[in-house]
Amino acid sequence: MKDAFGAPQSLLVLGGTSEIALATARRLIALRTRRVWLAGRPSPALDTAAAELRGRGADVRTVDFDALDTGTHEEVLGKVFAEGDIDVVLMAFGIAGDQARDEEEPLAAVRVAQTNYTGAVSAGLVCAGALQAQGHGSLVVLSSVAGERARRADFIYGSSKAGLDTFAQGLGDALQGTGVQVMVVRPGSVRTRGTAGQPEQPLSTTPEEVAGAIVTGLRRRSETVWVPGSLRVVMSALRHVPRPLFRRLPV
Amino acid sequence: MSVDTVSLTGWGRTAPSTAVRFRPRTYEEAAAAVRGRGPRGAIARGLGRAPGDAAQNAGGSVLDMTGLDRVRALDESTGTVRCDAGVSLERLLRVLLPRGWFLPVVPGTGRITVGGAIGSDVHGRDHPAAGSLARYVSELDLLTADGEVRTVSPGTALFDATTGGLGLTGVILGATLRLKRVGSPLVSVSTERATDLDDLLARFTAGRGGDRHGAPMPYASAWVDLLARGRATGRGVLTRGEHAPPSVLPAHARRTMRAPRTVQPDGRPAGPVLPGGLLGRTSAALYNEARYRSAPRSRTGELRTTAAFFHALDALPEGNRLHGRAGLVRYRFTVGYGQEEALHRVVRRISARRCPAFRAGLQRFGAPSPGWLSFPVPGWTLTLDLPAALPGLGRFLDGLDEEVAAAGGRVCLAQDSRTRPETAAAMYPRLAEFRELRAELDPTGAFRSDLARRLAL
């Protein structure tokens, strides 16, 4: 069960090797969390992540989960929920893709869309159903600022996140009054191992900052969390910039 | 019996969860609800005054007991009252007081049901002399997991597990309570100001005031200014009281025990949720300053009605909404006599952190109750309400828990919403016995609550 400050005792991470998810797990373990499920494709990275969290005192288990294999979601996640209540589900899987290559290879673009959107719709609905049955819990959905407005530089990734974001908002409304909270997290560009060496984007953030914002959002029972918080203001302005002008902005 | 699905929280308005709510009006309907419970079990709920998650059951059934509210019999020859579990203490007192009877234990709110009061084994301001409520329960009707109603008497293991058992041994359907006689519906109150915590503790133990025979006044509690700093840390106002003799009433009112009613029964519209920042540090400090200065340095013999003396806070409608959307967290702990240094450290830490602590109250406890999970043990008990939105409050309270546990103290489970399970287990040594009895009596886990899940009770 979550305590009065929204700190969960059990956590399920979908996308168990995500840096943001692991930073969040570390923070939650320092608060209350004792049971952690890391769901992802079996890999040495997943085992390393599990071992690291175990070293912090949590009971960590891994589970074989593939976002693209939507047919198995119900069974795989059903088994996790059958083992005991899950207080927070963190949907952190997703791929950034490579815009230039994806424009050339439609199949690669479809893979981005299927992982980030179709996979999330399937896993999100399965988890929402399970959370609703247990009468409490939070579903944290990692969206992106890229889903807020299409940019020339990453519109394939951005459109998949836009779909996910809209889905999560609607799901949150559908779950009003069921004791289940859906929280949409919209980070700016996140500096991770993958983006090391690339030029820094404006209003970029780190996995630690996103993790901190997620923990605060759980405490406040927020519906939407921007990281950094100033993005909320910036994007509400950018959203209304006319397209001919927006195209020329260096964003 | 009406049935609906609702999202519930405790009085603190934190950690909502959804359950199917049944409103039984008879013992049979309650038994049917327990037999028809889902796989996630059932828990009884009264007026929802527990600040934490003791009366919530996420994804399961919640039995709203307020429909079971008959005062069945008042036996004036033996001084006992028999009533259903859903009767509120406020209403019970309205029935009893005009006849010259009073409950032997009255907690800080009258808006709590008899069942809830027994399930959390409440105590009053006269605990050193009177003990907790369980001492005055002659017997109770308990609906157990098999759907049967058992009559449970004091001195049995089931009784000691049920009084203070947080509803986890079954649903209390009714009880017989022993009463005490009072001479008038008024309380004679004396008030004194203490300049710091040492002064406050000294005044508590001195036991001054009192009646003509010099006996200490039975009711004593203090409000503590937790925002005062420096040499004033822990300053407060000590209030004592005793039931006034009939001679204080005008002659025409002596037989009917009439008294001005200052606290009206429920029925007010719900107040608005105030923005959380409204009760911030500055306003809290100003309020405390004013409250301290306006208290008399020393005054005796002031007459108040029982409602105004025991349940002054019930006059404030929706007091739980004052702390904003995030709700409030109540921290209530006790440390034994001889551990006053630990109490000092906790008060200093709260005062140094400048938490806008409201309703901070200090009381004393006497002999412990036989209830296995009952809160009172001999010593001092401090209660405070904090806004849940304060950043870092969780860790801060964990730190206070450590201080309290190291001093051999404990936090109150019925009011808890955030303790770690391992801390709770260390504070309640008889928890293992409680778990054993539950496993034997209720092997399928028919009675569960969010609190029980969170603390693995």
TrEMBL record, chain A:
It comes from the Bacteria. Keywords: Oxidoreductase. The keyword Signal does not apply. SUPFAM superfamilies: NAD(P)-binding Rossmann-fold domains. One of its GO terms (molecular function) is oxidoreductase activity. The keyword Oxidoreductase applies. PANTHER family: 5-KETO-D-GLUCONATE 5-REDUCTASE, DECAPRENYLPHOSPHORYL-2-KETO-BETA-D-ERYTHRO-PENTOSE REDUCTASE. This is Decaprenylphospho-beta-D-erythro-pentofuranosid-2-ulose 2-reductase.
Automatic annotation (TrEMBL), chain B:
Residues 254-275 are annotated as: Disordered. InterPro entries: FAD-bd_PCMH, FAD-bd_PCMH-like_sf, FAD-bd_PCMH_sub2, FAD_lactone_oxidase-like, Oxid_FAD_bind_N, Vanillyl_alc_oxidase_C-sub2. Residues 14-182 form the FAD-binding PCMH-type domain. It holds the Pfam family FAD_binding_4. This is FAD-binding oxidoreductase. It comes from Streptomyces stephensoniae.
